[in-house]
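Predict the 3D structure for this chain.
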Amino acid sequence: MDAFYASVEVLDNPELIDKAIAVGGSKQRGVVAAASYEARKYGVRSAMSSVQASKLCPHLIFVKPRFDRYKEVSNQIRAIFHEYTNLVEPLALDEAFLDVTINKFNKQSATLIAQEIRYKIYNQTGLTASAGISINKFLAKIASDYNKPNGQKTISPEEVELFLEQLEIKKFFGIGKKTAEKMYHLGIFTGKDLKQQSVEFLTEHFGKAGASYYNIVRGIHNSEVEPNRKIKSVGTERTFEENLSSEVYLEQKLEQIIEELCLRIKKQNLAGKTITLKIKYANFIQKTRSATLSYFLSDEKILLDLAKQLLYQEELEDSVRLIGVSISNLNNKNEEKIIAAVQLQFDF
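Done. Predicted structure below.
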């Protein structure tokens, strides 16, 4: 979907049409969750601090997120996907992979299927979508960003090799900013440069990911579309209206975060063994602390006690602007029974 959260807000409030808007945060605090294309012209991007976004775009309008509404629209869109195939792997509320090799309408062209889906999405929701079509998930993902907004691109099998050789390394799906910078230092700027490296060289410099880079630049990516993709972690976080240094106030906020986290994991009948605490200080330095237990936990009191011990595991370096808590190492495979409430003494 194109600027999904922001587009939904514009759809529901026509007064925001053609305005630079950011979903999430405020002029003083928080982080941008999504930005309209009008805001992006000024350099505003998701995950950017609201303060920085306001400096780049002084007339930026901040809108509070409404995730229930976004989920409602997302369900409408996924229903359209399932008209064509049951092989749908959601990546987020606004994005998914579809395998249409065999589809419910016996259509032979994935390009035409993408056009139909985009047309139905617009007719039923009033929102635009972009699509990428190719021989695997990696290439389809790259292609989906090519003609945004409201466009699509197909990379046919015979075009794959040349397309990847000419592609800038920073545009490879899965290669982030830090990895791209490391590649630049090694003289790797394009797919062609990457393709010239041996698997031994790439493994030496990038570890296990090296073999993956060796394959993807050759168009090899055998990951199947997984309709029942397992959740790896569940988390929630809060950016405070004012930086906090008082232990009393920090614990109050932590209680609210744990309460929300427990509602999420219990709603999905999940529990986990690893709890991670994220702290972002007033100077924007971010630290994480985690602990892994031998039991699956979902009990609110136990998780809160553990989160508090992580909070005070080390002395706080500064006042705190954000706290987040996530739980991972989940019981997705149902191999063990959930331990809903046990009496444990946590020692660090």
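Residues 334-348 have pLDDT under 50 and may be disordered.
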